[in-house]
Amino acid sequence: MDHSIAQELADKVAASILRAGRSKTSVAAAAGIPGTTFNRKINGHVEFTMGELVRIARVLEVAPSTLTPSAFLARDAA
User: Fold this and answer.
1) Is the whole model's pTM more than 0.85, yes or no?
2) Cα–Cα distance between 13 and 2 in angstroms, integer?
């Protein structure tokens, strides 16, 4: 596992939860992710799956792309 990617995902999810004014517990439950699993992921120890990120995005009412790693962003052609 690439720790930097896991941490980037965790940071993006945590920031989105904060902006939405939600609790981590409520988001985990609404996204169908067990609390202990969600805690390991939000702390950057384990990566979120794409499916989990999509479910979290739905719960937070944000575009899934806001939660994906920066490596997924399109780059301008040189």
Assistant:
1) yes
2) 17
